[in-house]
Automatic annotation (TrEMBL):
Residues 31-127 form the Phasin domain. The lineage of its organism: Bacteria, Pseudomonadati, Pseudomonadota, Alphaproteobacteria, Hyphomicrobiales. This is Phasin family protein. NCBIfam families: phasin. Residues 132-153 are annotated as: Disordered.
Length: 153
């Protein structure tokens, strides 16, 4: 009677399974290279996103500084209006300018965000396309086989 080991590790079980099943050989170096390129694409995408975020934050800081400077300038230029209509007109004009600046700034920030996101997605999209081609090529070429010898006449 053959005795089986009492406690098999998962690795031992998979090793025996791999030895008994007719599984084709895998090119481990090729698989590692494939995943390395995937990670490199993720790194490039993250870098593009970080650069876009940095540009966005720098521009927001510049906009805030400009807004504070403009508000300070407007506060210095305020004269006591002679009538309630002048006061209302002055306040409406200031509010209109602030609203127009806010809309313009929001549009500019949106454009920066869109460019950053597009650059990041484009990097990933290109890697996915390349990876799919690599996989297709892997399925089309038999692993570990050599080309047939040429016949000499």
């Amino acid at each position: 009677m053959v005795q089986q080991p009492t406690s098999d590790s998962i690795i031992d079980m998979f090793t025996r399974l791999g030895q008994t099943l007719p599984i084709p050989n895998f090119d481990v170096d090729r698989i590692i290279a494939h995943h390395r390129r995937n990670l490199e694409a993720l790194e490039q995408s993250a870098r593009a996103t970080a650069e876009g975020t940095s540009a966005l934050m720098n521009r927001q800081r510049e906009m805030l500084q400009s807004m504070i400077s403009q508000a300070t300038e407007n506060a210095r230029g305020i004269k006591m209006p002679s009538s309630p209509q002048e006061m209302m007109t002055s306040q409406v004009d200031l509010a209109r300018k602030a609203f127009e600046a806010a809309v313009e700034n929001a549009g500019e920030l949106g454009t920066i965000m869109q460019r950053s996101g597009s650059a990041s997605v484009d990097i990933l999209r290109e890697r996915i396309k390349t990876a799919m081609n690599e996989l297709q090529d892997g399925f089309n070429k038999p692993q570990g086989s050599t080309p047939p010898p040429t016949q000499q006449v």
